[in-house]
Amino acid sequence: MSSNKLLLKYTLRYPKLVALTIALGFSGGLFNGVSTALIVPIILNLLGQKVDLTGAPPILQQLMSPFDGVNEEFRLSAMGIAILLAIVLKNFANYAATLVSSSLMRSLTADMRESGLKLLLEVDLDFYSKMRVGDIINSLGGEVARAASAIGTILRGVIIGITALFFISILIAISWQLTIVSSILLALVGLVNQYSIGRSKYFGKMLSEMSKDYSIRVLETLNGIRLVKATTNEQSEFQRIIELIRKREQADYQAQANAAAVGPLSEVTGIIAIVAIVFLGRAFFADKIESISTVLLTYLLVLFRLLPYISQLNTTRSQFASTSTSVDIAHEFLQRENKPFMKNGDKPYKSLQKGIHFHHISFAYPERAEVVLKDIEMYLPHGTTLALVGSSGAGKSTIADLLPRFYDPSGGEITIDGVDLREFNLKTLRSQMGIVSQDTFLFDDSVRNNIRYAKPNATETEIIAAAKRSNAYEFIIRLPEGFDTLIGERGVMLSGGQRQRLAIARALLQNPEILILDEATSALDTVSERLVQEAIEELSRDRTTLIIAHRLSTVKRADQIAVLDQGEIVEIGTHEELLAQEGYYAEFCEMQLSQSSSEGQDINHHNTNKSLQEAQTRFSYEIRSRLTNMIGSLRLLADNLVDNAQEQQELLEESYNAAISILDVVESFEDSTKIK
Predict the structure, then answer these.
(1) Separation CA 310–CA 490 (nearest Å)
(2) d(Cα 541, Cα 369) in Å, to the nearest integer?
(3) Using CA atoms, how far apart are residues 241 and 146, in angstroms rounded to an integer?
(4) Angle between helices 584-606 and 608-638 in degrees, nearest 10
(5) At 339, is the secondary structure helix, strand, or coil?
(6) pLDDT tens-digit profile of 264-279?
(7) Which of 300, 307, 306 has its CA nearest to residue 267?
């Protein structure tokens, strides 16, 4: 019943289209009935029989009355023209009804998908931790479309039902006795089809399940394609998906076979019903069969025209039963009451004046008993940096998620200048927070569009400036199409360090007041780490920054360092203060230094040649690229191909700058290859 509310809710958005569809459908049935009733007198006239309407039902007399005043010589032609006109109007009404119904279906599908997309963008992150992406894609795509088609099926059922009632009213007007018998026989036809309709619902549910499993498996395989290839599981994944495809197609075939059987079954049982009615009609009117031949023939013809509508009604019931599972799924998906939504404050966030206070924070993820954070108390003054360190699972990333209100604390509060975060408008709050994490997300779009994602109206000058400040400009201009280069899904065409620098460029362009860095330099090689670290220092300048890091080089620059262990702060202070305590942080630093020393010795003893080779390769590449530019400029000058004095001066300056950059590369190479 609740699922039907979904259909009613979206259908009522377009009352005019619904009313027009029903009106046009009914008009088509009306003209169909009129043409059917007029055919019998014409047939009898063509057979040379006299049409006797004496004692005929009033409805037949009214249909024939417009032709009473027509000359008998032209009456047959007039009736033929009337029938032709009725058939033309019937087909026009049916065609218009199809167009209006199609427009209604497209509008309903678009509305449902818009509602689903709006819901997905507004719902809390906790929803995504419980839902599989494949389920979401399947619900938003196929199931919503099938649910919208169910509304079309209902409308077709309403139109067919109204038309059938119109025909039945004609039958009752002709002979209520035969109509009672016909109704009983046709009810038996409906009962015969009920079995097929029940099977349609079963097959529809099976098809929805198969479609969901297929979508999920394909999406998981594509997302994990590196793992699939690395473990040489291509064939096994192929077989699993092929099996799902075959099962789905088998379910689809069974559903279609069942649906296809409804029409023929209805037709056969309907013909049997008509034959039975003919015999019963002869029995009812045996004493006056000749005098009422017109009435009986009209009755049978109207009944014969009614049977296809009964068959269509059964088919419509079968189709609706098949899509009812999709309606349930779409209703569950579009329902907002059973999903978590972050309560939005009404106070616009303006700026940070004093600082951010984590006041006795505790937190447990929804529907989980384990407490992740316990009584976190710390203060981040404006314009300073707070670093969080600790073992994996200590709660560092959870704190970073609480600040932009991806989650709300279970206990305590986070305040900005004394105001609880929950009082601020989420959009204005998050617009002033920049987040750079280890798992950088980039869109399958150009470099330019990825940088300006947080500020769509950014100018080209601002984009280039952000790229330069993030140490990304040099590698961007060497890409095949520069800033217009497409970087692939999640930036697959770029290295880890390049992706991080684009993310930092994006944050720089956004110019956030509060910065959150979550393991931004982990899992990078030494060269990339240095470039990213320089970009981070540029990004963090004069900002209030929360850093999560494992690298000592990043942590010790912070104004404050908080050490977490099992969801609690065990130490807090500056680098020097914590070292003096000789506690957790001192142990952390010792481990970092020991690891760095071990790695350094390993590199010196085992990878010296490899490092030199890599340095030589980079050196060769840098020298060649700069020499190519310089030689090109000098060639233009030497061949007198540039007449404009200003352009000549620009080429000379470019050549000079290229020469200076070559010297810088040489010096950098010498420094990197010195034995210390």
Answers:
(1) 55
(2) 40
(3) 23
(4) 70
(5) coil
(6) 776 677 677 767 766 7
(7) 307
Give 572 or 65, the one with higher predicted confidence.
Answer: 572
For tokens 């379910």, the residue is: 251
- Spatial neighbors of 259 by CB under 8 A, at least 6 apart, are 196, 200, 315, 318, 319, 322
Determine if residue 21 is left, alpha or beta; phi over 0 gives left, psi from -120 to 50 gives alpha, anything else beta.
alpha
Report the side by side order of strands in the sheet with 411-416: 373-381, 355-363, 411-416, 419-420
Write the DSSP assignment of 467-500 as a string of letters: HHHTT-HHHHHTSTTGGG-B--GGGTTS-HHHHH
174: enclosing H helix or E strand? helix 144-174
Residue with tokens 């500056």: 574
606, burial (CB in 10 Å: exposed 0-12, middle 13-18, buried 19+): exposed
* Residue in this structure with the two tokens 């007039």, named with its chain if needed: 78
Judge whether 517 and 523 are in contact, CB under 8 Å.
Answer: no
Looking at residue 494, its amino acid is L
How far apart (Å, rounded) are the C-alpha atoms in residues 319 and 200?
7
CB atoms within 10 A of CB 8: 10
CA dist., res. 562 & res. 539, Å (int): 21
Cβ-proximal residues to 200 (8 Å cutoff; 6+ apart), any chain? 255, 258, 259, 262, 318, 319, 321, 322
CB 504 within 8 A of CB 528: no
419-437 pLDDT, tens per residue? 999 899 888 888 888 888 7
CA-to-CA separations, 649 to 378, 637, 646, in angstroms, rounded: 58, 10, 5
Q: Rounded distance, CA 330 to CA 324, Å?
A: 10
Question: What is the number of residues in the chain?
Answer: 676
Report DSSP letters for 242-294, one per residue. HHHHHHHHHHHHHHHHHHHHHHHHHHHHHHHHHHHHHHHHHHHTGGGTTTTHH
Output the six-digit token pair for 77: 């032609």
Which residue has 């025209």 as its token pair?
305
Where do we find the tokens 């240095």?
530
What's the confidence (pLDDT) of residue 293?
59
Question: 233 by DSSP, 3-state: which?
Answer: coil
